Amino acid sequence: MARVQRDGGDDSAPTTELPAVRGQGPPAVNGRANGRGAPIPADKARVIPEAAVARLAVYLRVLSGMAEQGAVTVSSEELATAAGVNSAKLRKDISYIGTYGTRGVGYEVDVLTSEIERVLGLTRQQKVAVVGIGNLGHALANYGGFPGRGFPVEALFDVDPDLIGIPVGGLPVNHIDDIPDICATRAIAIGVIATPPTAAQAVCDRLVEGGVHCVLNFAPVVLGVPEHVEVRKVDLAIELQILSFHVARNAEQRASRRTAAARASSNGEVV
Amino acid sequence: MARVQRDGGDDSAPTTELPAVRGQGPPAVNGRANGRGAPIPADKARVIPEAAVARLAVYLRVLSGMAEQGAVTVSSEELATAAGVNSAKLRKDISYIGTYGTRGVGYEVDVLTSEIERVLGLTRQQKVAVVGIGNLGHALANYGGFPGRGFPVEALFDVDPDLIGIPVGGLPVNHIDDIPDICATRAIAIGVIATPPTAAQAVCDRLVEGGVHCVLNFAPVVLGVPEHVEVRKVDLAIELQILSFHVARNAEQRASRRTAAARASSNGEVV
DNA sequence: ATCTGTGAAATCCTTCACAGCG
DNA sequence: CGCTGTGAAGGATTTCACAGAT
Fold it and tell me: In this structure, are residues B203 and B231 in contact, taking their beta carbons and an 8 Å threshold?
């Protein structure tokens, strides 16, 4: 693992530092809001746009599929197509993490894979706890080792007394009152909330109490958390509503196009 | 329902047209790629940024919670706080759909609710089909009427012969070969893919064949679709990996801060 | 000749800050 | 006086297009 040196070693930082993201701090109520008085030293480079991080994870998956099929190198064009983005964006995304390509050739699949894994912090295991063992929680718990290894589920919680002690996917369910203790002792890194919306905030508070810094929230509520805690939301209803918007928009578009076409002439295009 | 006229009717378009989103077309391989030769007429206004659409759905939920508690009006500040955004952004988002507030007062909860519902196309029902009745599919099917009504699940599909005919959440499971027929006859608007990744593309193709224009994809693959089809992705592994990135970044930050602190002096700050 | 890496331009989104209505 | 609606400024992200490496 431990890289010795950057390939096209251009600037400083020989250490194995991990990059930061930009635009992360809270909106900053007004004016300067950075602890010290300094005008933000920040190493300038070495920040990865939040949007790029999400895509790097996609590239990683595409790469693993390619590796399985025996690919050794891949061009930005191929990888981009497979990932559903354009190649300029892909190259820029990759450039945020270093320069691992060979001009005229492309990227080595395994090099790129391990570099993305390094940046995403996938070299160490992140322990996961799932709270709320209903339909969804069951589905999540049964993933066993979570998607693509690296995210072992190490604790389950629910309120329902009938569930406590029952093993789901090989792990016994604990009561949510034990969240702080168990998360702390098992060093849980990521809490997944799959409870009804009314319970979500209380559960979240206990996770934070137990030292969890990252939360994946499936409950349809906006969680309040201290600023060092990172929350990501997966919201089915909102996804459907966004799709609904597009249905409506398209229907409208088609309708007005039809009107326009009818006005212009009776043309038998198929489109 | 049918609005008679915009409140602060400033520009044209007295019809009940629905807005479009910006930046929607595919990346366009290179150069001009819009069907006709026109330099994109586009009505200029009346486009809602994609990012705003997602937030409007959030506001909608927060509003319904407020309505339940008997609130009649709400200020941009209150609504914004409850939705976890800042008030300027909220006001701008709302301004994309019209001007429904009262200066010095705020917004009427029910007016705003129904206007957002209108824009999101929630006034008509969007029929949903769920494909892949495994753990996740079960969870989805059992939502019964999908989140917040408006999205009735009207068809279920799987390959497993043991499942065909079995009712799940009140609906019998059909074979995936019947997707095109059934989706067409039942006028399914949205297809939800909860299959293993290997099956996802084939399922998606059949949904499209059945006239489905919107797909919500839970399978960890990038789907290829004709350009009139809208796909949204919910990807557990990627969400976890993004969180993992933040864990790694924070750990790194803490480490370097510790180093810096140690270097500067043995200071007993808490932070 | 090909394909990466990247400044610079273009586009999209957010935040500021204030005019103006009630 | 309070609060919305919105130009304009400021950031962030995407795309262009080309210099430079192999």
Answer: no
Q: How many CB atoms lie within 10 A of CB B235?
A: 21
CA distance A32 to B95: 29
| Residue after which a domain boundary falls, among B91, B119, B147 | B119
A 166-185 residues, CB < 7 A, strand D: none
On the 0-12 / 13-18 / 19+ scale of CB atoms within 10 A, A38 is exposed
Same domain, A57 and A114: yes
Among candidate residues A79, A96, A119, the one where a domain is terminated:
A119
Of A54, A83, A213, Cβ closest to residue B242:
A54
pLDDT digits (tens, 9 = 90+) for B158-184: 999 999 999 998 999 999 999 999 999
Of B120, B124, B147, the CB nearest to A245: B120
Residues A109 and A77 in one domain: yes
Cα–Cα dist A103/A87, whole Å:
14
Q: Which stretches within chain B are classed as H helix?
A: 50-68, 76-83, 87-97, 109-119, 135-141, 179-186, 197-209, 236-264
Same domain, A51 and A115: yes
- Please report whether residue B10 resides in a domain: no
Domain coverage including residue A252: 238-271
Model confidence band, residue B248 (pLDDT cutoffs 50, 70, 90): confident
Q: How far apart are CA B150 and CA B130, in angstroms?
A: 15
